Amino acid sequence: MTDTMEKAGKLALICALSALLLGVVNSVTEPIIAIRKAAELKAALENLLETGTPGPREDLEDEGTIKARYSVTGADAWILEFIGMGYGGDMKVLASYDFNGEIQDVVLMDNAETPGLGKKAEADGYMDKFIGTGGTTPVPVTKNELEAPDEVSGATITFAGIAAPLKEGSAYVKALGDDK
Amino acid sequence: MDQVLRIFWGFLSTVLFGGLLGTGLAIASRKLKVEKDETVEALEGAFPGLNCGACGYAGCGSYAEAVAAGTDEDLTKCKPGGADTLEQVGSIMGVEVDTNAARMVARVHCIGGSEEAVRSFNYQGISDCTAATVLFNGDKACKYGCLGLGSCAGVCPVNAISKTDNGLVVVDQDLCISCGKCVDICPTGVMRMIPESADFIVACNSRDKGKDTKANCKVGCIGCRICEKKFPDAGYKVEDNLSFLSYDSKDPGRAEAAAKCPAKCIIPNKVKAEEASNAG
Amino acid sequence: MRELTKGFIKENPIFILMLGLCPALAVSTQVVNALGMSAGVIFVLLGSNIMVSLLKNFIPDEIHIPVYIVIIATFVTLVDLLMQAYAPALSRSLGVFVQLIVVNCIILGRAEAFASKNGVKDSIMDALSMGLGFFFGLTLIALIREVLGAGTITLFPMGNFNGVIEVPGLVQAPVRIISLSAGALFVVGYLKAMFNWISSRPGKEEI
Amino acid sequence: MSYFAILITYVFISNLILAQFLGLCPFIGVSKNVESAVGMGFAVTFVMSIASLVTWALYHFILLPLGLTYLQTIVFILTIASLVQLVEMVVQKYSPVLYKALGIYLPLITTNCAVMGIALINIQSGYNVLESFTAGIAAGIGFLLAIVLMSAIRVQMETEKVPRFLKGAPIAFISGGLMAMAFMAFDKALLNNLVG
Amino acid sequence: MSRFRTFPKGGIHPQDYKEATCNKEIQNASLSSIAVVPLSQHIGAPCECLVKKGDLVEEEQVIGKAGGFVSANIHSPVPGEVKEIKKIFLPNGIAVDAVVIEMQGEFKRLGKETTPADWNSMSNEEIAAKISEMGIVGQGGATFPTHVKLSLPKGKVCETFIINAVECEPYLTSDHRVMLEKADEVLEGIKIVQRLLNPGKTVIGIEANKMDAVEHLQSLISTKGYDMEVMPLEVKYPQGAEKNLIKAVTGKEVPSGQLPLEVGVINANVGTCLSIYEAVVFSKPVIERIVTVSGGAIKNPSNLKARVGTSFRTLIEDCGGFSEEPVKVIAGGPMMGFTVYDLDTPVTKGTSGILALTAKEIKAAKPTACLSCGRCISACPMGLNPTKIYKYVDFNMSDEAAAAGLMDCVECGSCSFMCPAHIPLVQGFRGGKKVIRKNSMKKAGK
Amino acid sequence: MKDKLVISSSPQFHHPQSTASIMWTVSACLLPAGIWGIYIFGLRSLLVLAAAIISAVATEALLNKIKGENTIADGSAFLTGLLIGFNMPPAVPLYVVVVASFFAIAVVKWTFGGLGGNWMNPALAGRVFVFFSWTGGMTTWTLPRVPGADAVTGPTPLGSIKVGLSSITEGINGPLDLLAAEGVPVTYTDLFLGRVPGSIGEVSALLLIVGGLYLLIRKIANWEIVVSYLGSFALLVWLFGGFRYGQGLFAGDVLFHLFSGGLMLGALFMATDMVTSPLTSKGMLIYGVGCGFMTYLLRFFGSVPEGVSLAIIFMNIFVPLINRAFQPEKFGLVKEEEASK
Ligand SMILES: Cc1cc2nc3c(=O)[nH]c(=O)nc-3n(C[C@H](O)[C@H](O)[C@H](O)COP(=O)(O)O)c2cc1C
Ligand SMILES: Cc1cc2nc3c(=O)[nH]c(=O)nc-3n(C[C@H](O)[C@H](O)[C@H](O)COP(=O)(O)O)c2cc1C
Ligand SMILES: Cc1cc2nc3c(=O)[nH]c(=O)nc-3n(C[C@H](O)[C@H](O)[C@H](O)COP(=O)(O)O)c2cc1C
Ligand SMILES: Cc1cc2nc3c(=O)[nH]c(=O)nc-3n(C[C@H](O)[C@H](O)[C@H](O)CO)c2cc1C
Ligand code: SF4
Ligand code: SF4
Ligand code: SF4
Ligand code: SF4
Ligand code: FES
What we know:
Chain B is an alpha+beta fold. Chain B has eleven helices and nine strands. In chain B, strands 1-5 form a two-stranded antiparallel sheet. Chain B has a two-stranded antiparallel sheet with strand order 3-4.
């Protein structure tokens, strides 16, 4: 019995030491990680806007691919967060709209697309084909509606997975207007 | 404050968790104690790990178990390991093992290549000696010689055997690990083990009468007994129309006997460099 | 020196001992991942080997595995937390595999096979040797996969250098499948065959 | 995600071995003959499904409420290790037949990163308890499928004239690569089309 | 589908080439001045030699006495002087002692009338003794001593007696000719066996490419009122293999590793029945047999009645010699026969044919690796997986090969014939069986 | 005389077919469809075919050196190269073709022991390898030639359908309607004769069927595979193929799906590769049904328009297992079991 106790005790002791060590380290790194994550999101949101500052996140329910919205102070704009369906699964997309539903800027965040194909959507300039659409001109959703369809060849699924939510977002914002 | 509290909770729950698991495992391990046999492990370490089966077991592991369990008292079955292994095994088992036993290597006892030996027919079939012997025991007129199709080369675990251009095979005795597989598979029995130190061999396996041997092969042993009679201490002994050489004594007479052999079938054991490089 | 270099070829953990295969395949899409992963593994190996060899007399035999696991897990979590805090990009691309160092067979294997039987100094040497071997193997795989599969060699950005070397010709039309899962298995298969060949040549065992 | 989708995902699309590289050591090590591959496959499926449940409970009832997620690794691995031992004991006591079939493979699973991997993936994907369980079983089935197919291929290769240096592990890896290539037929997009 | 019965699984349809000789009447072959008589012309123990060099022997004198239970006497085919006793290779590759007799002196039977004995008045024991004494062996190829086969073990009954008149081997027509020319004798022989075995049923199995023989026998049987049935069978090789024939005729499968008697069947070749008739009625030992000499390289393919010990060369010369250089000379049929390299090889009791084939007929090609086409599997009448077994043999995995059924292989050659990769599967199996036998002997020795 | 006689094991003569004659016969049966491809897509196709064949044979020759054998004459490398060429779009960059051939011969075939050793179809594995690597180049299709015009590119019927289905409108009645709505009208005759974009050798269903029938008659290709593959696929299409157009059960357009894409090439010439298909009839039937099901699944739900190559190599994985499960029944074994009862 004492033998068992001793072994249990020793394992407990080692566990305790580990937990203590990790607890201390965690208390140091946790704030850093949190701050960094917040900063990254903030930077992304701000990059979507020419002027103005994004407000707090509001989660949306039952809005299809639109998962959240951010109101903007200092500019007539909304920022929407989407989850689109790409080749490799969910893709997180952030986009800013003016009150007419015209797309101002888009960025592809977390995704699991194929490097060299879908991942191209992360690159600068990829989203140019969407910017300025959604208001008077419709958001292109099929390859044939593009000026340069070859640009998305081989990654049509990624393209469609971004375009469809953007179009949805445009309609959503049009309906929403400046109704903050 | 919050942080400290969390560290505390973590500390506490991990301690509890660890304690619990520790108790459980300690009890469990007592109940489920598996005796790990150190001897087996040590033996396995000593064996070369080729799993070649020369010992007659499925692999090094099973031989180690058999030795450790005492079911096999012969500690010298691992030929591939050589003296090193023998010594180690001996010390693990606490037994004196004669590590001086000469290393044995395989040697083809036939030099009747395509030039020398008569082939009776045009063999068409599997390139494998055992399969070839189902047809008139092979295409050589001499039914004891090397067919050169290389069944032995196929089973050698270390690729020590290669075919030569003249329809025979040659063993690279440096590579040979004495496993004896080639001897087992050879359908004509022309592959035999000899001590590595052997200086000469009678390179023939024909038990035919001298006349027949002569008709079948230019370099076959005709059983004339010159070697046996003229050099009685050299170790030659003719039985079944064939001279056998025993390597117990180191008598220089062997070289002279080789020179006197009318069939020129007593040759130095070591393969000459050119002959080895002839191997294709 | 022998001790240190044995991990490169003769006892290479990936190719000869065949340990730690999962991370080797999963994170070898880019050279930089391989470097990061190797650093993590070396850190954990060193830490756990030291701790295990220090504690070897203190730990009862029956619970040695759980204790080793706790020790290893602690170091892994340390690496994970530190990476998340200070190397977020790397942390993201290594993904779940940082936490999986804990089950990386190399580490538990070396704790069992070496550190628990040897002194601290030898254990450090062993950890370094195995770690370097892992580093060598992993980087080799990653280099081949990235060059063929993406046409690039991704290192750390430094100054003007953005961290990516492009291989002309390949970068426009890389053999993309090499950077996907199937390619990893092909590359490791042929490398393993190459190691078989090298180590079976007589007289080459000394490396 | 529907349970069907999870099943398809972990059996075909994100097959642990062929797409995620988890559990390669036993995949290469225990696939030399079909019988042991089947045994190993079932053992892994069994342990994975239980481990998915237990780790999910630990995470959601203890680690998360107490803010101790940083202890995830340590707790999970300890749990899995003890679980394997526990399962071994229970099976041995109550089902000698099953023990005979799976027994020798159970200890090997402790250091199999597939089990740990699926536990972590479950948490990361935010599955509920039943989804986690399904994922555990599905991942196990995926492992079973891959290792059994691989073993049949390897047994067939025993009697083919494979070049010497490619025999054994290299041929297993390259076969695995070809399998992975064929499994790329299944992708997330296919799943989407299939389940809506 | 054919309207005739056959065995269900496996089998092949090689071109049969029988038209060359099937209409040629049996002719007497020349005698060679030297007869080489092997002392083992059957399965089982070799004979004990009763003569020595320089002895004078008479025609039909016993020169080799059965060397065991499974063995058969050997008689001198010609009168003459024993020149020597030497080792020769039989076509099956086995080296045996052979008595070399230089012909001289007088023939006993040639050209003389002999009175037939009335076998109906003989007892079963007397008949059996005659069969044994006269050295009758199966002439269907296996050369199993007939008296052994016909002595039923205690407690066993023969439900069906099957006469194997299938002659499924391409080229061969000797059984066919015997049925046309010696039907009365054959039927009488069958009657004798019926007396011995008392079978429930007697069936003569003939392939449908010999309908003339079927009709001939049927009409004879019905006029004589014999209790036997002629059963035409679909043309398919190896219909004549005894287990497949039994399956075709009775629908029963002889269990693996067992004898036909297990399912109540005994079977004998037509030629064997003829020999039984001659032995019992005329006390004539087996010193002659019908040999088909055929093949693309033979000038006048024929059916010859030849004495045991006559060289192949003599028979080929009787047929006008070679019209072109043959690539292979075969003893037996092309599917199961053995190639010989020496034309001085003698005819034995089991030699059903001598074929000299040209390259065009052989259709040899360089073997390649197995394509896993599965043709060997579809062809195998024994339901084996030849490609798998061959690979096991090739990789020296004899235990696995045995487990896969190597020992059940009857070496019919269907698999090798079909194999597009031209792999000598049968040769591999024979080698593999040899190794297995060697290993089990070694084990027994230990 | 004496030395010339051949001694060999029984049987002493042989069925006329050999590995080489089979391989060359298959190649010859492919020839008409290949010529049609060259005619309709232009001389560039000939270049692609030549590149595929030459690189396949050259790789085989190179690897022959290592093992010291000569297997060029057996025609299997030629055939593999030819089939790779058949499976390439006419405008594919040549390096893609060369890599496909190299991968097929060196990795898929030689690594596993050369002819007969491979468990996966080399030509298809090579094609899939380059497809996943250079998806763009592998999905650019040349339009069938209009006399006098330059080569232009456009989608294959199956590709157009995949795109079109995402925005399907009312009143469309099956694939042919959809294609017309998409502006690429196609008739059954076009499909049957091969006047549509596609891989060089796959477009002419007619010529492939003619060649395939010859192989079936000569028993070079196994009818079990062809029938079960095409049958199960047609059945699935007929049953469920209509759903996508809102037509419900039993309304799929079987003819369209049978004659489009690489199905005929795959079912007649590639699924029937004896090396990588099961040994026994039962096994072949299962394998064929598996191929049919996979092709249906990938064509209708997959992210890529075409599913035949992936379906076949996917089923190749199962062949060793199928071969273990469906062994021939040994003669006399049933009795043995009964006896022991
Ligand atoms: C290995 C591989 C990776 C792929 N990755 C992507 C991707 O990241 N994004 C995407 O939209 N499609 C991806 N695809 C799908 C196809 O490229 C795409 O659906 C198909 O080619 C249709 O494109 P097209 O209409 O432009 O020809 C991938 C396909 C493969 C084989
Ligand atoms: C493949 C094969 C084919 C055979 N073909 C025949 C045949 O055509 N005619 C025949 O009489 N015996 C044939 N036999 C021999 C029979 O199996 C059996 O030995 C014989 O019919 C018994 O009769 P016997 O003892 O009178 O010779 C064949 C055997 C085998 C293995
Ligand atoms: C492109 C091509 C190349 C050929 N090359 C060879 C060859 O190298 N060797 C050969 O024997 N036959 C060659 N042939 C001819 C085929 O052998 C012939 O079509 C085939 O042998 C017919 O076989 P079958 O009699 O079994 O129908 C070739 C045929 C074609 C179309
Ligand atoms: C009917 C038939 C179909 C074949 N199909 C293919 C094929 O699809 N791909 C291929 O590489 N070889 C094919 N071959 C050739 C050959 O079998 C192939 O090269 C082997 O798989 C190589 O081991 C085929 C051969 C035949 C007889
Ligand atoms: S030594 Fe024996 S096995 Fe080797 S090639 Fe010669 S005959 Fe064949
Ligand atoms: S097979 Fe023969 S040559 Fe090869 S290692 Fe064994 S004994 Fe030596
Ligand atoms: S030789 Fe043997 S394996 Fe081949 S078909 Fe005949 S019985 Fe079957
Ligand atoms: S017939 Fe020949 S090629 Fe075909 S499976 Fe059998 S052994 Fe292989
Ligand atoms: S590293 Fe994943 S199972 Fe070994």
